Amino acid sequence: MQSPTNIMYKANLSWEPLQEHLRSLLEQNLIVREAVGARERYRITERGVSVLTYFGKVKDELPPLKISV
Questions:
Q1: Are 33 and 21 in contact (CB under 8 A)?
Q2: What domains are defined for the chain?
Q3: Who's near 21: CB < 8 A, 6+ residues apart?
Q4: To 5 degrees, how large is the angle CA 21–CA 56–CA 50?
Q5: Could you tell me the sign of the dihedral formed by the alpha carbons of 20, 21, 22, 26, in that order?
Q6: Tens of pLDDT, residues 1-31
Q7: Is the model more confident about 66 or about 10?
Q8: Quick check: 27 and 21 in contact, CB under 8 A?
Q9: Contact yes or no for 39/47 (Cβ under 8 A)
Q10: Confidence (pTM)
């Protein structure tokens, strides 16, 4: 479980965009919000793990991006 602040720092997002992303992930049942004492924590659901696994497999199948500067 992660706190919103911890997620914000790890995702390099400011507070408002983080809240929008968390709301979207909650609506899609990819994460759940849990109360731990007086604090909020977020945890990935089984469905969220499945989606991450799926996209990880897709990423592994794609060729590396060639970026020219």
A1: no
A2: 4-60 (1.10.10.10)
A3: 11, 13
A4: 70
A5: positive
A6: 999 999 999 999 999 999 999 999 999 999 9
A7: 10
A8: no
A9: no
A10: 0.81
How many angstroms separate the CA atoms of 42 and 63, rounded? 33
Say which residue the tokens 């500067």 belong to.
69
CB 45, CB 56: distance < 8 Å: no
**29 and 42 in contact (C-beta within 8 Å)?**
no
SS3 assignment, position 67: coil
- At 68 the pLDDT is 84
User: CA-to-CA distance for 47 and 49, rounded, in angstroms?
Assistant: 5
Residue 19 in tokens:
């809240």
Tell me whether strands 31-36 and 39-44 are parallel, antiparallel or unpaired. Answer: antiparallel
pLDDT given at position 56: 94
